[in-house]
């Protein structure tokens, strides 16, 4: 399977971000082509080769066999509001066309006042019928989570859910017993040693599923089934080539009860496909692609990495992770 991919012509990109998100200001990754089309490999810098092997498995699935058949053709999208000031947060939510917003909170210590102002602004922008969720990326302890969630819930006029308030599953379960809003698990699934076996039922009400770090659309579907919870699909900040797989997952899940965090191209100042094909939500939704999106070579030229050292770093990384994947065949078992 790996031998069918044109790794020799892999193309490295670097795209500045509109706002710092997850501590990064430039998104980088590699694109390559296989018999079924193009794919993207873009694990964050801090992920080691073993962890990155699942990201490569997703790309290999995409460009060698494509995706399973979808059961829906359109996916409702949430807008993603980074840790910005209230005016900017209001503008992002108001102009997104989305009825649901996911807001980053707990971005730094003592962020509570800023978090409350951001959440209030977004509720104002969406109106009473909108859905407001927050993501704390696991940084609170139980006591802080319980206190902050109550205040944020009030400021939001009701939160749809709180994503990963604390780090461990035990803490999530404890918080869940003490607060009103639903609890969603993200890192608890995605960063688990064995996502297939992680027992989130009882600790969370919603599973956030991202096929890019979980080893592919088919594998993510099995993980969603094992989690036994309603799902929201969310991005890993891919360009349109990689986002296509996430949309294929959202399209193929038997049940999809929540808007999905796949509107993240708005955080990137460029893309790897042409403007027409770019997966930017229109009126709050995105279509499910039936086949991998093709890289537009002109678009790629405008975002190709210009730093030779970083380009080599990415190509070396791809080489190493290919070797890891070649010796971890279970990751390629569909
Ligand atoms: O879910 C969304 O609205 C956007 C995606 C998103 O929030 C994330 C993408 C990539 C890395 C993560 O830190 C982050 C998340 O925590 O969910
Ligand atoms: Mg999250």
From TrEMBL:
SUPFAM superfamilies per UniProt: Enolase C-terminal domain-like
InterPro entries: Enolase-like_C_sf, Enolase_C-like, Mandelate_racemase_C, OSB_synthase_MenC1
Cofactor(s) the record lists: a divalent metal cation
Keywords, in A-Z order: Lyase, Magnesium, Menaquinone biosynthesis, Metal-binding
SMART domains according to UniProt: MR_MLE
Residue positions binding Mg(2+): 135, 163, 186
UniProt-annotated catalytic positions: 104, 210
GO biological process: menaquinone biosynthetic process
Broadest EC class assigned to this enzyme: lyase
Key word Transmembrane present: no
Pathway linked to the protein: Quinol/quinone metabolism; menaquinone biosynthesis; Quinol/quinone metabolism; 1,4-dihydroxy-2-naphthoate biosynthesis; 1,4-dihydroxy-2-naphthoate from chorismate: step 4/7
Any one GO MF annotation of this record: O-succinylbenzoate synthase activity
Record family assignment: Belongs to the mandelate racemase/muconate lactonizing enzyme family. MenC type 1 subfamily.
Free-text function comment from the UniProt entry: Converts 2-succinyl-6-hydroxy-2,4-cyclohexadiene-1-carboxylate (SHCHC) to 2-succinylbenzoate (OSB).
Protein name: o-succinylbenzoate synthase
Protein source organism: Lentzea tibetensis
């Amino acid at each position: 399977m790996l031998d069918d991919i044109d790794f020799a012509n892999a193309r490295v990109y670097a795209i500045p971000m509109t706002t710092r998100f997850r501590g990064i200001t430039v998104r980088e990754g590699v694109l390559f082509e296989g018999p079924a089309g193009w794919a993207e490999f873009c694990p964050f810098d801090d992920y080691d080769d073993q962890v990155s092997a699942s990201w490569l498995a997703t790309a290999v699935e995409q460009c060698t066999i494509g995706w399973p058949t979808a059961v829906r053709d359109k996916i409702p999208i949430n807008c993603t509001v980074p840790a910005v000031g209230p005016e900017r947060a209001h503008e992002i939510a108001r102009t997104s066309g989305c009825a649901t917003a996911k807001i980053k909170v707990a971005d730094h210590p003592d962020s509570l006042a800023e978090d409350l102002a951001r959440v209030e602004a977004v509720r104002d922008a969406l109106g009473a019928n909108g859905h407001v969720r927050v993501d704390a990326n696991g940084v609170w302890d139980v006591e802080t989570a319980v206190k902050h969630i109550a205040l944020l819930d009030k400021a939001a006029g009701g939160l749809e859910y709180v994503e990963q308030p604390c780090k461990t599953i035990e803490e999530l379960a404890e918080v869940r017993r003490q607060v009103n809003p639903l609890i969603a698990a993200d890192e608890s699934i995605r960063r688990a040693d064995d996502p297939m076996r992680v027992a989130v039922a009882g600790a969370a009400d919603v599973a956030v599923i991202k096929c890019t770090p979980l080893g592919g659309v088919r594998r993510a579907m099995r993980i969603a089934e094992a989690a036994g919870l309603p799902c929201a699909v969310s991005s890993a900040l891919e360009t349109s080539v990689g986002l296509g797989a996430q949309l294929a997952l959202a399209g193929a899940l038997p049940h999809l009860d929540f808007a999905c965090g796949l509107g993240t191209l708005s955080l990137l100042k460029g893309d790897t496909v042409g403007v027409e094909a770019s997966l930017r939500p229109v009126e709050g939704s995105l279509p499910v692609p039936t086949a991998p999106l093709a890289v537009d070579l002109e678009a790629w030229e405008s975002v190709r990495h210009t730093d030779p050292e970083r380009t080599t770093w990415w190509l070396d990384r791809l080489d190493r992770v290919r070797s890891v994947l070649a010796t971890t065949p279970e990751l390629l078992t569909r």
